[in-house]
Backbone:
């Protein structure tokens, strides 16, 4: 990555820090805000940061797919859901003390999970492979999808078809009653 | 450790994935609307994808397998969002509310 361009390694580090910071900031916005539409925007920011991280993990194809599917499809669908239902969380019904206890409990659980998962994955005895079978390019992904994983590929298309039909049926029932 | 080598260390990605999972679980407990919980669930999906891609990049002999798995995860997440949003809209038509505390009746 150290080309002839001056300070190129610092630039790479800056772009990596931008991607990681976008992911963290988006996840924090999505988890902490009260308005749902801000939560969706936080999810979009986190997905753009994740696309940058995928690029650093040697997979530009997945970076493209992350932006296309998550930012372009999933988040826009959630925005439609927000439009068809209601946009805000109500103020909490219980006392302030109960709300504080609830938040402290959630924070303790998620901090414990964060510490446990990162401890286990950092202390894990990971072994680097002796050699690479393929190069992980888009061509190799296409060949893998059409040979080794063709059954799973077809099943995914079936799942998507059933999901679309089911979503239509569920969202249509009850429309006549209102 | 040289900070310039940070993008090539697997530990950074592992900690980021753990942070995404923790943020998703925090949001899942804390949010009080169904759409907020759905967003938190998407964060957890992203954590799993990032973890798979990290192992795929650094420790897998065949780097295409993890990418294909993450593509399948994205497809399943899209299907899940479509189903969940249609259920949420149906619930909103019946209850006039998507707050998880209001949805306390079962009706067959």
Residues:
């Amino acid at each position: 990555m150290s080309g002839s361009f001056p300070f190129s390694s610092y630039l790479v580090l800056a772009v990596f820090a931008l991607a990681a910071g976008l992911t963290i900031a988006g996840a924090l916005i999505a988890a902490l805000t009260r308005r749902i539409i801000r939560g969706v925007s936080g999810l979009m920011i986190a997905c753009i940061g994740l696309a940058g991280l995928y690029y650093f993990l040697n997979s530009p194809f997945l970076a493209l797919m992350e932006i296309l599917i998550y930012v372009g499809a999933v988040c826009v669908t959630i925005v439609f859901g927000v439009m068809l239902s209601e946009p805000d969380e109500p103020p909490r019904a219980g006392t302030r003390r109960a709300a504080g206890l609830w938040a402290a409990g959630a924070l303790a659980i998620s901090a414990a999970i964060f510490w446990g998962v990162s401890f286990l994955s950092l202390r894990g005895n990971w072994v680097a492979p002796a050699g690479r079978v393929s190069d992980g390019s888009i061509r190799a992904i296409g060949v893998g999808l059409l040979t080794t994983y063709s059954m799973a590929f077809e099943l995914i298309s079936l799942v998507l078809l059933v999901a679309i039909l089911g979503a239509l049926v569920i969202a249509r029932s009850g429309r006549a009653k209102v | 450790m040289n900070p310039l080598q940070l993008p090539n260390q697997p530990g950074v990605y592992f900690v980021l994935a753990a942070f995404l999972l923790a943020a998703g679980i925090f949001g899942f407990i804390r949010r009080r609307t169904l759409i907020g919980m759905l967003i938190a669930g998407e964060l957890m999906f992203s954590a799993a994808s990032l973890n798979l891609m990290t192992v795929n990049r650094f420790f897998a002999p065949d780097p295409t397998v993890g990418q294909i798995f993450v593509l399948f995860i994205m497809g399943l997440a899209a299907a899940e969002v479509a189903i969940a949003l249609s259920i949420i809209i149906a619930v909103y038509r019946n209850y006039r509310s998507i707050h998880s505390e209001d949805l306390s009746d079962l009706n067959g």
Notes: Residues 162 and 168 of chain A are 10 Å apart (CA to CA). The first helix of chain A runs from residue 8 to 32. Helices of chain A lie at 8-32, 36-56, 60-84, 96-123, 138-146, 150-172. Chain A touches chain B through 93 residues (CB under 8 Å).
